[in-house]
């Protein structure tokens, strides 16, 4: 089953350099149309290792052929408007992906109207059409054995490239990731061995990460294996497993997060959750305990908690809007969650802060959690008070609170730190106020 391609990967590396060099002398020779854009971009084929500082820009379209690793202290800088295409490979173990290793850095800075887009090639724009975007860092994880990031077979990694992650540098800086949309990612190598749209292993708090969207990915939208990275303004659009998955001692702070689900989707995982959070697979006492700190999250499932097909026992259900389990800790405040069979499914007795949330589950709202009076079990989805709780218009005003609703002013940050203090619950300000989801074109 496994295919090892040491020779090819290394051989192609030098070709990739030649290809980049050739491109700069023949900008007018090889052009492809850029969708609804009027300009044309030159295709630059990239594969193997990036081991010296490299800049990509919107004049070109970068086609990844297999796994591309940034290593050896190199920084990959990607300018606003740049398009990166992961070439399709029928063998998911060989899926194309962009991997920033522990001793590489990323400087991907898009803008609201000119985001960086990483996507699958034209004929494979469906979930899992390519691998995805991976960042590895030196921040703490809670596992005692060396961890190699999921979704990459260690035996297939070229000599000199290290795909392990984690360390003791809490404020480790992997660079800047802003206004990046990852589409159709998440190649599935085997069960419990998948790439995600955004996969972060041991990424530290010195890293800047905001305004990013995962769009129709095959596994998780944002998966964090340990690390301390903080994030704001993240969007998950119909990913097939979890919108936000935390494991192995992740302790970052996240605010202003939106996740929605397309009811027509086919989910192959056995536990599709909005949030999934484990200390580790065995629910160990290893520290640091996984403890995401989350405020102003809006998780939207579907009106009946079902999708077209899933691997759940009844073949169609999703699981829960948030599943805290296997000895994790968590902080979840000022958030809105609905449209899953279970709202909050709490299967950990470890420490948590759960306050000022508004939740509605299709079958049950609070399971395994003693929700205090600051939380609301909404009588219905309509009762939550959003402008339009269902539909495909999630980029517009739909998920903004009605100005007359209690969620417009229901937030509290008493006793909390690390968050921006706002009046509203959920990810978005009330109707009529600035809506970060609707800025520019970065949210698809
Ligand atoms: Ca995953
Ligand atoms: Ca997952
Ligand atoms: Ca998980
Ligand atoms: Ca899951």
Quick summary:
The protein has 444 residues and is mainly β. It has one helix spanning 6-25; strands spanning 31-33, 40-50, 54-56, 60-70, 75-78, 83-86, 97-100, 105-109, 116-120, 132-136, 147-148, 164-165, 175-183, 188-190, 193-194, 198-201, 208-215, 222-225, 231-237, 244-247, 253-260, 266-267, 275-277, 293-300, 309-310, 320-325, 330-333, 336-338, 342-347, 352-355, 358-360, 364-367, 376-377. Residues 1-38 have low confidence and may be disordered.
Task: Describe the protein in words.
It is a single chain. 5% of the residues lie in helices and 35% in strands. It has one helix at 6-25, and strands at residues 31-33, 40-50, 54-56, 60-70, 75-78, 83-86, 97-100, 105-109, 116-120, 132-136, 147-148, 164-165, 175-183, 188-190, 193-194, 198-201, 208-215, 222-225, 231-237, 244-247, 253-260, 266-267, 275-277, 293-300, 309-310, 320-325, 330-333, 336-338, 342-347, 352-355, 358-360, 364-367, 376-377. It has a 27-stranded mixed beta sheet that branches. A two-stranded antiparallel ribbon has the order 11-12. It has a two-stranded antiparallel sheet with strand order 14-15. A hairpin with a 6-residue loop joins strand 1 (31-33) and strand 2 (40-50). The longest helix is centred in the first third of the chain and has 20 residues, at 6-25. The site of one calcium ion (CA) has 7 residues, from loops.
């Amino acid at each position: 089953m496994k295919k090892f391609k040491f020779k090819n990967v290394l051989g192609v590396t030098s070709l990739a350099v030649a290809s980049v060099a050739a491109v700069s002398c023949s900008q007018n020779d090889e052009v492809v149309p850029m969708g609804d854009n009027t300009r044309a971009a030159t295709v630059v084929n990239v594969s193997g290792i990036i081991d010296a500082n490299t800049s990509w820009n919107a004049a070109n379209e970068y086609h990844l052929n297999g796994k591309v690793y940034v290593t050896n202290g190199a920084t990959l800088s990607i300018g606003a408007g740049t398009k990166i295409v992961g070439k399709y490979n029928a063998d998911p173990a060989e899926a194309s992906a962009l991997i920033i290793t522990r001793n590489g850095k990323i400087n991907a800075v898009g803008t609201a109207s000119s985001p960086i887009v990483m996507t699958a090639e034209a004929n494979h724009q469906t979930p899992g059409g390519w691998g995805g975007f991976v960042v590895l860092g030196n921040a703490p994880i809670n596992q005692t054995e060396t961890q190699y990031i999921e979704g990459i077979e260690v035996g297939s990694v070229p000599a000199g490239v290290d795909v392990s992650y984690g360390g003791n540098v809490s404020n480790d800086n992997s660079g800047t990731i802003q206004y990046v949309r990852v589409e159709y990612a998440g190649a599935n190598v085997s069960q419990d061995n998948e790439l995600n749209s955004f996969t972060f292993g041991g990424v530290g708090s010195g890293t800047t990460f905001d305004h990013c969207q995962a769009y129709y990915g095959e596994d998780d939208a944002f998966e964090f294996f340990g690390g301390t990275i903080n994030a704001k303004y993240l969007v998950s659009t119909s990913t097939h497993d979890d919108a936000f998955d935390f494991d192995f001692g992740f302790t970052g702070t996240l605010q202003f997060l939106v996740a929605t689900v397309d009811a027509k989707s086919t989910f192959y995982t056995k536990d599709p959750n909005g949030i999934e959070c484990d200390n580790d697979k065995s629910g160990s006492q290893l520290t640091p305990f996984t403890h995401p700190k989350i405020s102003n999250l809006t998780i939207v499932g579907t009106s009946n908690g079902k999708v077209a097909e899933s691997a759940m026992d009844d073949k169609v259900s999703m699981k829960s809007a948030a599943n805290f389990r296997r000895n994790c800790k968590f902080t979840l405040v000022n958030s809105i969650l609905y449209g899953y069979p279970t709202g909050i499914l709490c299967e950990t007795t470890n420490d948590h802060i759960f306050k000022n949330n508004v939740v509605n589950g299709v079958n049950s709202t609070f399971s395994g959690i003693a929700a205090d009076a600051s939380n609301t079990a909404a009588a219905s989805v309509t009762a939550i008070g959003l402008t339009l709780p269902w539909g495909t218009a999630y980029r517009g005003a739909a998920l903004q609170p009605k100005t007359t609703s209690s969620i417009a002013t229901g937030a509290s940050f008493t006793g909390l730190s690390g968050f921006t203090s706002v009046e509203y619950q959920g990810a978005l300000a009330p109707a009529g106020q600035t809506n970060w989801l609707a800025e520019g074109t970065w949210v698809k």
